[in-house]
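Box 3.1 A note on notation
Throughout this textbook, protein chains are presented in two layers. The first layer is the amino acid sequence; the second is a token string describing backbone geometry. Keep the layers aligned when reading.
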Amino acid sequence: MDLGILIPISLFVCIAYAIKVCVDAMVRRRMVDAAVSPDLIDLVLRDERLRRYHSALRWGIVLIFLSLGFGLVQWFGWNWKEGTPGIIAVLAGATGLGNLMFFVIARRLT
């Protein structure tokens, strides 16, 4: 694999993230300048904090299930170079199970 392709991809991701951070900061600043009620500002910030928490929880659960899927592929001794449908099915199923598990946990938390 050519590692030179990772530099433009990572640059694009960093630029996109920087734009997102700047837009979020501008929205917060405009809310404060518009004299929005403190309750609304608190509600928006609390919702944003909850979204970040849920995002971290989702990625953690999905990555755990995906690692279990990779472990199953290794345990069965399947060859990665062949790219069989069984490998893809195990990894897709593990990702789906991780998302479903997140859904169940998130419903219980809220």
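Helices lie at 6-33, 38-76, 85-109. The chain has two domains: 1-36, 45-110.
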